Amino acid sequence: MIKSGSFGPAEAIILLAISNIARIFLPYPRLLTEIGATAAWMTPLGGLVVALVGFYVMYLVLRKNPGQSIIEITEQAFGPVVGVLLNLVTVFFFIAVGALFAREFSEALIIAALPSVPISIINIAYLGMGVLGAYLGLEALARTARLSYPYIFGGILLLLLALIPQWDINGVFPFFGHGPLEVFGLGTFSTAGITEIIFAAVLIQSLGGVEQLRLIGYRSMLLGFGSLIIILLVINLTFHWGTMAENTLPFYRLARNIYIGRFLQRVESVFVIIWSIVAFIKIAVTLYGGAVALTRTLKLPDYRPLLWPLIIIMFILSLLPPDLPSVVKLDTDWLRPYALVPNYLVPLMILAVFRLRRGPREEG
Helix, strand, coil shares of the chain as percentages rounded to 5? Predict the structure, then answer.
């Protein structure tokens, strides 16, 4: 029951790319603007390199046991106790990501369009769409992503083109902003914290097997990080970095700045629809990844009964922070560093364990 149909690598690439660009619509670009100033658009370059290396390391781990996911391999490498604990770390990571994204998207919708609606109502709507997508399965999510990506990426492209008359090349100078250390140090550390590497490793069989992992991973990261880089560049060209560093939703601010004649204004309402679609896919992906990871950890036959307790936990966690600044601080100070554990640290530890186990046999 964990197998969710079949789909091609194109759908998998688009699904992971849309999951990756979800952060574009939230306060996240403001953080990168604070880090890089006029060089904010360069901050994801280091994260892109780390993500590509992370996919390659994960490929090396999964290649040793091509019929298994990272959940089973982790338990084999570290034993039934430590392995299960590390797998539960992965499960909680998915749930925490889904909870924080649900809260941030709900806050963004209140700011942009529904200021009088209680946060819990919007949160329930987003989580309800997420649990529906997770219940339908990975194939349904992949097909949905494939159908919606022309509108998502096409809408972003139209936004960028509509802002060309407002670009100012002086917005990218001084070239390295606050300095290379901040741009390529803190920027790399922040942008490398993603969910797509561990998600692909948990669902490797559904994505076409180990041999497809590098193709899917590399192309989806190039598409996702490329979109982030371009949008940050447009932010630098359109506004002074100090102004955008104080703006809660930089992407929404870009959309509000579009003016195409007297009878075509307030086009940001179109982008509210786009980011709602992206939010649905992102929340569904994290919930599905967490449910499948927990199912494999507990060796259960079906993931669907776990969706309801997990979505309740996600709902409770999403409402615990008192306000949006607290959510952003949790995302910045806790979730981004925490993401490095399942995506990079655990695979490297597994490779080290495999190397140590193979060493004595080769010497004997």
Answer: 80, 0, 20
CA angle 302, 305, 309 (to 5 degrees): 135
Q: What digits encode the pLDDT tens for the residues 236-260?
A: 999 888 888 888 899 888 888 877 6
- The residue-averaged pLDDT of 318-322 equals 94
Say which DSSP state 55 is in: H
- CA of residue 214 relative to chain centroid, distance: 18
Peptide bond preceding 337: is omega within 30 degrees of 0, i.e. cis? no
Please, what sign has the CA dihedral across residues 129, 135, 138, 139? negative
CA 197 from centroid of its chain's CA atoms: 10
Residue 3 has pLDDT above 80, yes or no: no
The number of CA neighbours under 13 Å toward the Cβ of 217 is: 29
**Is residue 214 predicted with pLDDT exceeding 70?**
yes
CA 301 to chain centre: 28
156 vs 1, residue with greater confidence: 156
Q: What is the mean pLDDT of the chain?
A: 90
Long-range CB pairs of 53-58, under 8 A, 24+ apart, other chains included: 54/192, 54/197, 54/343, 54/344, 54/347, 55/197, 55/200, 55/213, 55/214, 55/217, 55/218, 55/221, 56/214, 57/344, 57/347, 57/348, 57/351, 58/197, 58/198, 58/200, 58/201, 58/213, 58/217, 58/347
Rg (CA), the chain: 20
pLDDT greater than 60 at residue 1 = no
